[in-house]
Amino acid sequence: MGKVIAITGKGGTGKTAVTAMLIRHLNNSEKKFRILAIDADPDANLADALGAKVEKTVGDMREFMQDSRFTSSPDTDKQALFEAKIFEILLEEDGYDLLVMGKPEGSGCYCYVNNLLRAIMDKTAKDYDLIVIDSPAGLEHFSRKIFPDLDDLIVVTDESRRGLTTGERIRDIAREMGLKYKDLYVVVNKITTGRRDKVIENATSLGLTVIGTIPYDESLAKFDLVGDPLTGLPDDSPAVKEMANVVGKLGL
């Protein structure tokens, strides 16, 4: 299995934007990776940020697999059926494949969808050099062991001291849960000019390692405002330039 990077943080901090810019940078890199991008947030936004059009999700697959118990013949090869559905929902884009969790259409909890996502990961993860996961807020997906052991857990926060303490709490909860990862890093998003040093100081006092301080970027804000994919950001965008530093610190 390749390197596994999960990006998490409180809602509204910009973790999906950071995920999209990371994939954008890797796609434009001279190094060529086989990338699997996973949008594990039921409120799926990663596809829009990447400019991809998703028609089928894991949630849709759940409905099909549930229905197939009653509609398929007894001699149907369920494993072959499952693998065929994976190829239906796995979106092949230029430079990466995308898997979107989505929402189940029927009633009930996400347990079955989570189990499907885990099974798909077990089946496909070995085919990629790099797996990038846009995680929902919180650590529920990790506690349920849906994802394989992580190489890097990236917490996206704002520049406030309170935002950074979220990173501290996620680190402590991850340890309590026995979540396996090699490194935990912080990326501070929408940082104000002149505040970087203080943010780094605050993070250090909490025992956190900051690998990126993404400045407020007017071009990124305009893209978000009209819903344009972040893959179209110009190379001279301050956020894009800082993402290059993040990628370097991740050793990619």
Automatic annotation (TrEMBL):
GO MF annotations in UniProt: ATP binding; ATP hydrolysis activity
Cellular component annotations (GO), alphabetically ordered: cytoplasmic side of plasma membrane; cytosol
InterPro entries per UniProt: CobQ/CobB/MinD/ParA_Nub-bd_dom, CooC, P-loop_NTPase, ParA/MinD_ATPase
GO biological processes: negative regulation of cell division
Ranges for domain CobQ/CobB/MinD/ParA nucleotide binding: 5-229
PANTHER family: CARBON-MONOXIDE DEHYDROGENASE ACCESSORY PROTEIN, SEPTUM SITE-DETERMINING PROTEIN MIND HOMOLOG, CHLOROPLASTIC-RELATED
Name the record gives this protein: Co dehydrogenase accessory protein cooc (Nickel insertion)
